């Protein structure tokens, strides 16, 4: 696979509330993703690969949650990488260079 530049072009967050009984984890992910895609003005077909930051399996209560979330993430049939560090996953996800990004790329990959 040829390495090409990658970028974060949109952001999205879920509705903020202390507890959300109206939606599952997959639904929360999809809510944020739909908002990020709308912010960027793109659709799932425009996304080539997915990087997801999730807590370790022990905290999730399910092994490899990225597998059951793949469809909600728009990652079915696309490269997907999961990053977790048990506390600083948000910062680590941003600085992780997936194998499909060019070497040295940290901002935007």
Question: Can you walk through the features of this model?
Answer:
It is a single chain. With 109 residues, this protein is mostly helical. It has a domain at 25-95: Thiolase/Chalcone synthase (Peroxisomal Thiolase, Chain A, domain 1), CATH 3.40.47. It has four helices and two strands; from the N terminus they run H-E-H-H-E-H. It has helices spanning 25-40, 57-60, 65-73, 89-95, and strands spanning 50-53, 80-83. Strands 1-2 form a two-stranded parallel sheet. Helix 1 crosses helix 3. The longest helix has 16 residues, at 25-40. The two termini are 16 Å apart. Residues 103-109 have low confidence and may be disordered.
Strand neighbour order, sheet with most strands = 1-2
Largest sheet: 2 strands, parallel
**CATH topology term of one domain:** Peroxisomal Thiolase, Chain A, domain 1
Succession of helices and strands: HEHHEH
Short description:
The protein is built from four helices and two strands, in the order αβααβα. 6% of the residues are buried. The chain has helices spanning 25-40, 57-60, 65-73, 89-95; strands at residues 50-53, 80-83.
Can you give keywords for this protein?
Peroxisomal Thiolase, Chain A, domain 1; two-stranded parallel sheet; mainly alpha; 4 helices; about 110 residues
Tell me the layout of helices and strands.
Elements: H1 25-40, E1 50-53, H2 57-60, H3 65-73, E2 80-83, H4 89-95
Parallel strand pairs: 1-2
């Amino acid at each position: 696979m040829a390495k090409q530049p990658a970028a974060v072009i949109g952001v999205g967050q879920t509705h903020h509330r202390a507890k959300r009984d109206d939606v599952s984890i997959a639904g929360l992910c999809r809510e944020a993703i739909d908002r990020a895609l709308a912010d960027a003005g793109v659709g799932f077909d425009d996304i080539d690969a997915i990087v997801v930051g999730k807590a370790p399996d022990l905290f999730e209560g399910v092994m490899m949650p990225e597998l059951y979330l793949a469809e909600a993430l728009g990652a079915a049939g696309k490269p997907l990488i999961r990053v977790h560090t048990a506390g600083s996953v948000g910062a680590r996800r941003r600085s992780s260079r997936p194998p499909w990004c060019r070497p040295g790329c940290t901002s935007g990959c």
